[in-house]
């Protein structure tokens, strides 16, 4: 794990990756369906984000809902892992639980193995499935044995700042694992999260896009309850820049270099 804390921004498009890069992100986590907690993006989106942004880590999650997967879903996500890395991603972000809230070590071994077989240098991160585990700290302690070197977590709390004590326990339970604080993170939280033991911080820095439609509107699925609400998220460069400044100040003004 790097000794210098890093800034990761969750983005949903190549444009978001470019905005994150221009305003100081060290890397991005690319997904789609951010309003659903994030889903696997298309291979074309990965390729375009790699071209336009800083190093790209791809969220691999084949559907919304719980993190208990059957064999067909695990096989699909393993294929998505391979596709993301072949498209130029530097890492993948995965997760799976058993029905009783333990890590699904078989599924995680399959996903991590797919990553290593495709790119031995790829970083594998456990995503926020850990926050729905029955014992998040114990789950993090098990990660080194699975070849997973990073965990994205709010410490099992609604927001990372509320889960600060658990973040400290996680960092102690798995030395060398990058505990990335994510979940409702605001720039003003960053100093406290680093003090708690986070090795990196993750935030979406999102804002709702202004709808472009000029014609009529009817609801489609769960997209929104009004024409104004039925829109998508974009990356807010001002929030990224504020997070960059807060991280550099908390880390002693070392600056950043994407990696």
UniProtKB/TrEMBL annotation:
For this UniProt record, the keywords arranged alphabetically read as follows:
Cytoplasm
UniProt entry tagged with the keyword Cytoplasm: yes
InterPro entries, A to Z: CutC-like, CutC-like_dom_sf
What are the subcellular locations of this protein? Cytoplasm
The record's listing under Pfam families reads: CutC (PF03932)
Q: Assign the protein's first listed, main location to one coarse class.
A: cytoplasm
Nucleus found in the keyword field: no
Family, as annotated = Belongs to the CutC family.
Do you know which PANTHER family this protein is assigned to? COPPER HOMEOSTASIS PROTEIN CUTC, COPPER HOMEOSTASIS PROTEIN CUTC HOMOLOG
Q: What is this protein called?
A: PF03932 family protein CutC
